[in-house]
From TrEMBL:
The lineage of its organism: Bacteria, Bacillati, Bacillota, Bacilli, Bacillales. It is found in: Cell membrane. This is PTS system N-acetylglucosamine-specific IIC component. InterPro entries: Dup_hybrid_motif (IPR011055), Glu_permease_IIB (IPR036878), PTrfase_EIIB_Cys (IPR018113), PTS_EIIA_1_perm (IPR001127), PTS_EIIC (IPR003352), PTS_EIIC_1 (IPR013013), PTS_Glucose_EIICBA (IPR050429), PTS_IIB_1 (IPR001996). It comes from Planomicrobium stackebrandtii. Pfam families: PTS_EIIA_1, PTS_EIIB, PTS_EIIC. Residues 464-477 have a biased composition (Low complexity). Residues 1-366 form the PTS EIIC type-1 domain.
Length: 638
């Protein structure tokens, strides 16, 4: 469910990206600025139809290939739902929730039926053409259900909204705190959508009823703004001050190197309100520091409310929106005074904690990270690499679809046996996983987006040879022949079993406790199924079943040793669920444990998780104590 909500939150960014254009048009067209009615009407055309835009955007975002067919199904789902439901109860107005529900249903149905096949006489209606048909049928049934079920649901949502709206500064403070706290998971988009586009109602001068904090503010509701105002001091002053603190705490010899980067992301936050580049520099380094940031955001929201400040934005709380919507605001200058105070608080707290905790913020790394500054990232090098990658994957005839995530290409191919793993690694891949006969994952690293985008037009054009020839990749290939820095993205490593995380030093075995077998951590398990913490391959299953070795798709070798001296149990108390050589993905079951037997017969259930082939990197725990199986971002390798 958590992962599904993350996908929805990510999908919401498609329609939310339209808001800056809508806000600019709506605002500039109003009488106190340019006074051009058709311009305001153009902006209103977007904001008034956000529900169907959400339906289209979410459906496209959930579709495995981002197809326009899914987007069409989303629009059809919304039109069927909203047209049918009012015949049951004409007072129902689902607002943006109609779009969200329609987009989710359409996206899921697209992934289920996009390749369905029918007999020859019905073949025209097969595949993607069938998706709008099944979507219309499904939404007709759903409209019948929601016609009776939605009124009490909407009553509950309205009651929750009324409570938060009437909770005064504690309501806005709680929202501000959760808005930042949920950002690492992507779920902040979900609560933003409810607050921004559904909470509260306002009837404008034309008699139209609008919902949501942003819509009401832009339409002139004098009560709107408390759920937006307090973000301005944080984004315009607080987080830029955090960048200044990171610069001040950087090593003297590295200040010039990191100063430009920190200034750039600080100015971006000040001007546009885009804060993620700053927040991701410290949220995983110090969860405590990030919680402080979330608390300060909540406090800023509460102070702005207490001082009766009403300001808002169409995109985010940066200087552009501050100036653009200044004429609609109440007491906006107070936010600038607040910002100076907030900036001073951020600087002092961040500088103190960075130095006190020796956080490795930019400019404080133990060693200079080489390569990024010297890498040839020009368009020609990327184009050559795209050509060679396509050829190594079996050529255009073998590639069906190209997708990518944070670090890897997720390829659909006709025959994975035609993929040349050695050639892929020679041209820069850090690892290759053949999931099955038609699915291959190629680990590229953080530059995967550029490579994936370069491959798509080449595939469409038959992958012609680069203008300068494939020899221009020689320098790149020389670098690629060097041992790649082994890495694990924090989000790509999950807790393998429910239990308590402890450092290796607390394991009652000197070999593990002193890290003789490698760095890592240990778990005192309370669950009875051991799962794979990573995507990779099972490289060893011990005959006594007490330990399993996995190699990740980035080349890191992991040993999971269940309990101490459990080798003497000769396999009793364990049931293996995988075989040596088997490909596994995060969450796949590896081993079943008889905890009652093991507790009675093993000296300790402490289960070391060891990274056996790390040489220059170290493992740092980001969480401790009891953790549920599947929890990610529990450690980092650096």
């Amino acid at each position: 469910m958590f992962g599904f909500l993350q996908k929805i939150g990510k999908s919401l960014m498609f329609p939310i990206a339209t808001l800056p254009a809508a806000a600019l048009l709506l605002r500039f067209g109003q009488d106190d600025l340019l006074g051009i009615p058709f311009m305001s009407a153009a902006g209103a055309g977007i904001i008034d139809n956000l529900a169907i835009i959400f339906a289209i955007g979410i459906a496209m975002g959930l579709a495995h290939d981002g197809s326009g067919g899914a987007a069409l199904a989303g629009a059809i789902a919304y039109l069927v739902l909203t047209s049918a439901i009012v015949t049951i109860n004409e007072s129902i107005n689902m607002g943006v929730f109609a779009g969200i529900i329609s987009g989710i249903v359409a996206g899921l149905l697209y992934n289920k039926f996009y390749n369905v096949k029918f007999p020859q006489w019905l073949a025209f209606f097969g595949g993607r053409r069938f998706v709008p048909i099944i979507t219309a049928a499904a939404m007709t049934v759903l409209a019948g259900v929601l016609g009776y079920a939605w009124p009490p649901i909407q009553g509950g949502i309205d009651s929750a909204g009324d409570w938060i709206l009437n909770a005064g500064m504690f309501g806005v403070g709680a929202y501000g705190f959760l808005n930042r706290l949920l950002l690492p998971t992507g779920l902040h988009h979900v609560i933003n959508t409810v607050v921004w586009f559904d909470f509260g109602t306002f009837t404008d001068a034309t008699g139209e009823v609008v919902r949501g904090e942003i819509n009401r503010f832009l339409r002139g509701d004098p009560t709107a703004g408390p759920f937006l105002s307090g973000f301005f001091p944080i984004m315009m002053f607080g987080l830029p001050a955090a960048c200044l603190a990171m610069y001040a705490a950087a090593k003297k010899e590295r200040k010039a190197l990191v100063g430009g980067m920190l200034f750039s992301i600080a100015f971006t936050s000040f001007l546009t309100g885009i804060t993620e580049p700053i927040e991701f520099t410290f949220m995983f380094l110090s969860p405590m520091l990030y919680v402080v940031h979330a608390l300060l955001t909540g406090a800023s929201m509460m102070v702005a409310y207490a001082l009766d400040v009403h300001h808002g934005f169409g995109f985010s709380a940066g200087a552009i929106d501050f100036v653009l919507n200044y004429g609609l605001a109440t007491n906006p200058l107070i936010l600038l005074v607040m910002g100076l105070v907030v900036g001073a608080i951020y600087f002092v707290i961040f500088y103190f904690l960075i130095v006190k905790l020796d956080l490795k913020t930019p400019g404080r790394e133990d060693e200079d990270e080489e390569g990024a500054e010297n890498a040839d990232s020009g368009n020609n090098a990327v184009d050559v690499r795209a050509y060679n990658t396509i050829e190594a994957l079996g050529g255009t005839a073998n590639i069906v679809a190209v997708e990518y995530c944070t670090t890897r290409l997720r390829m659909t191919v006709k025959d994975s046996d035609r993929v040349d793993e050695k050639a892929l690694k020679r041209h820069g891949a850090m690892g290759v996983m053949k999931i099955n006969k038609t699915n291959v994952q190629v680990v590229i690293g953080t530059a995967v987006e550029f490579l994936g985008d370069a491959m798509k037009p080449r595939l469409a054009n038959g992958n012609p040879a680069p203008a300068g020839g494939t020899e221009t990749a020689a320098a790149e290939e020389t670098v690629s022949d060097q041992p790649a820095m082994k890495e694990i993205i924090a989000e790509d490593f999950e807790m393998p079993i429910q239990g308590k995380m402890i450092p290796l030093s607390e394991v009652p075995d000197e070999v593990f406790a002193k890290g003789m077998m490698g760095p890592g951590f240990a778990i005192i398990p309370s669950g009875n199924i051991l799962h794979s913490p990573v995507d990779g391959r099972v490289v060893s299953v011990f005959p006594t079943k007490h330990a399993i070795g996995i190699e990740t798709d980035t080349g890191i070798e992991i040993l999971i040793h269940v309990g101490l001296d459990t080798v003497k149990l000769k396999g009793e108390g364990f049931e293996t669920l995988v075989e040596q050589g088997q490909l596994v993905q995060r969450g796949d079951a590896l081993l079943k444990l008889d905890l009652e037997f093991l507790n009675a017969n093993a000296p300790s259930l402490a289960t070391p998780v060891i990274f056996t082939n790390l040489t220059e990197q170290k493992v740092t725990l980001m969480k401790d104590g009891h953790q549920e199986q599947g929890t990610n971002s529990i450690l980092r390798v650096e």
